[in-house]
Amino acid sequence: MSTHITDPRAELKRKAAIEAADMVKEGMVVGLGSGSTSAFMIEELGRRWAEGLRFCAIPTSERSAEQARSHGIRLVTFATHPQIDIDIDGADEVERGTLNLIKGLGGALFREKIVAAASRRFVVVVDDSKLVDRLGVAVPVPVEVANFGWNSTARQLEALGAKVTQRLDRSGNVFVTDGGNMILDCHFGEIADSDTLQNQLDRVVGVIETGLFIGRTSEVIVATADGLQRLHAA
Ligand SMILES: O=C(CO)[C@H](O)[C@H](O)COP(=O)(O)O
User: Fold this and answer.
1) Residue 94 CA to ligand 1 centre (angstroms)
2) Average model confidence (pLDDT) across the chain
3) Which of 16, 132, 165, 233 has its CA 20 to 30 A from that of 90?
């Protein structure tokens, strides 16, 4: 079943996702991102799978795994496939000059970063509303933290300059990641030096992973009303 799209932003996401799906070739090991743009990509890969394309995939969330399975896509693990050929994923913000990212508004940042780190190519698919001059302009940095002692972790994050909000789900309960942890959304405002911030966050005890993706992007496919653009890492 294909998705019927009425939202113009969603239509742009779908175009970027289909372009990226075209990069998946026979026999590849593919990282499957999470979020609505990635869902279009998985849907397109499902269509190609039905036409006979064969590859295997490592999903970045339970939801993406479920979607891939529903198309019959072969899922594997790092135990047998430690090296991924191409990982295709969305993003919440893409910094134009560096292609650094903020990810994780969908809550899958930890697995997303593990999969991106194990990939030869990390291809990001977005609509042009995600492009920014500086990270942090519009969205917080999601930080996955251990449940134990999270108030103390939050205080340490505040000491780094963040306004910290505990992520809740749609029902108002504490959001639980696929790994069973919680997410603290850290509002830093415009981030002048994301590399330094990543290092500072990494040193906070209780932090499991952050949604800052620094120096990982190979290519960004951006869908605009005027067509597709491809941005490459320097
Ligand atoms: O990082 C993510 C999930 O953890 C998503 O890639 C990000 O939130 C973008 O989502 P969407 O494609 O729905 O705009």
Assistant:
1) 12
2) 96
3) 165
Percent of the chain with pLDDT over 70: 98
Is residue 43 flagged as an active site residue? no
ipTM of the complex as predicted: 0.98
- Ligand 1 close to Cβ of residue 31 (< 6 A): no
Contact 12, 224 (CB under 8 A): yes
Q: Which atom of ligand 1 is nearest to the CA of 39?
A: 12
Q: Which atom of ligand 1 is nearest to the CA of 105?
A: 8
Atom of ligand 1 nearest to the CA of 142: 4
* CATH 3.40.50.1360 segments of the chain: 8-132+214-225
> Does any ligand 1 atom lie closer than 6 A to the CB of residue 88?
no
Phi and psi at residue 98, to the nearest 5°: -110, -20
Question: Residue 5's pLDDT band (boundaries 50, 70, 90)?
Answer: low
> Which position among 43, 95, 112, 219 bears the catalytic label?
112
CATH fold label, 141-209: Alpha-Beta Plaits (3.30.70)
CA 141 to chain centre: 12
- 227 burial level (CB within 10 Å; 0-12, 13-18, 19+): exposed
pLDDT at 131: 97
Residue 215 clears pLDDT 70, i.e. is over it: yes
| Residue 129 per-residue DSSP state | G
Rounded to the nearest angstrom, the distance between the alpha carbon of 37 and the centre of ligand 1 is 7
